[in-house]
Structure prediction request, 568 residues.
Amino acid sequence: MELDSALLAARESAREHAADLRSRALAVDAHPEDMRPHLDSPAYEAIQRGYFPTGYALGDTFTRMSYLEETVWLTELARGDAGALLACPGPALAGLAVNLLGSPEQVERFYSTIEDGRTWAFCAVTEPMAGSDATNMQTELRPDGAGGFLLHGTKRYIGNGERGSIGVVFARTGSSPLSIRAALVDLPAAGADRFALDMIGLRGARLSQLDFHGVPVSSSSLLGNHLSPMRRGMWGAMQMFNAARLQIGAMAVGTAFAVHDYVTGERSAFPAWQRAELDGTRAHVEAARRLLYRAGADVDADPEHSQLAAQAKLTAVRLAARVTTRLPRFLGPGALVDHPLLEKWWRDARAFEFMEGTSNIQLLTIARQHLRAAQGRS
Amino acid sequence: MIPDAHAAARSAGLAAGLRVVVDSIETVPTSVQGRTFLPSGYGKRLDAEVLAFPPAALEGLELVRVPPVVPASDEPALLLAAVRIGVSRTLLDLAVDHLTARTSDGDPLTSKQLVQAAIADCATSLELCWDGVLAGAPGTHARLDRVGWTLASLFGAAGYLTDHPARCLYLAELLGACWVPAAPGSEWEL
Prediction:
């Protein structure tokens, strides 16, 4: 699909900020716990401006980005560095949940907490034994006997969980699928422990574990009270995952572009077979980007459409794994240890596999949708 | 020496296997700029500059810099492939244990066909790699890269923690990248 002038302008703008993210990539990777040198980053300011609604300090022109615009924007930013991008303070995935499920008061509470541009938010779905399979979620919101709830359970691999001040935690109030709810939770809080996990790559995301031992949650903190029971919990989680698949796909494609740019920029000439493989790879990366854009437009048309988003994420993750492994070899033996950015992106690409659904989960989603469509035709 | 390198890695891990290899070759291959990994403590013995690379220490290795070395034969690559097969077989065992203990909808993950296919693919690829090493095919490393990716993925996000045994797969792949030059074609197509 072809981009219109507004989307091309968004892409150009993101490219300018990608250079700033690139300059911070290795420092954020080495010391994700120390973000002070990066908080005044021009790129971070631009990213935050894109994600804050009107009325907040950073949000002078906010109207929610379309999913297509977001895929265009994030692909180019990740071409700078996905790790530095994910380390940016702001709403991140939790913003998606609040935008989808929050009442005006909850939206106000969420964004006013993070409006200083130096505060992180977290979105807690994944659990140690259930992964991101929401139907097997164990974390509970138990009634406290006074109209509120007490949050019990453990969430793991939660981006910016260790440093987030507010977040969305998914938990169940009962055993049925409709009992899964999302709650706004402020941290630190009595009864909550958290710590960062030492990950091999994408360390800017500051993946963390959150342990809740009876953390009080008021009924007004449950997102979606103003929505029908069908649309309060799982519906929101599914739509959020759909959008998140696009985000991770964009970061994977951006990382593949980054490696291709870097490798081809290091040398003026390559042996013929390497040149041919570089050109072929470039065509594959462009194709993955087009698929991603098409998936973004598809989710814009219907946020419940999941097939193209899953196909785009599956393709992007495989591509990033292959490109980050193969292309550095063209700079000679050991380029991965001689060029720290290449080594970092090679590690980062592994993380995309398990974020917002593994490739197996994407395959099952794609098959289910495809078979449903085939049944419909017959 | 190939069976010894494999056996050491299979029973005691990447550093143990690498020790067998380094002790049996004349010079250790390096990157273009002279970087390579050695078992911890070997850098001092070889008068090499030891570089900071925290994940290596966790695996009993160290990243060092020496005058660049281009291997004169395929022997180091073949021995390293034997080591990588050894650690991959151990990780496959661990992955099966992990997936048997994890359940989805009440069934162990090993009952899911996609998971079974991944296990079968890794097991078959490792058999082929072993015969490739015995046949003197250093290109085995590209296939081992793909096996390593699949194996690490079988542990989910846990396999991406620095304190998880799957960490050795990342370091083994980095070693392969240092010791084996790129060749046309790849076992890991798009």
User: Anything to note?
Assistant: The two ends of chain A are 30 Å apart (CA to CA).
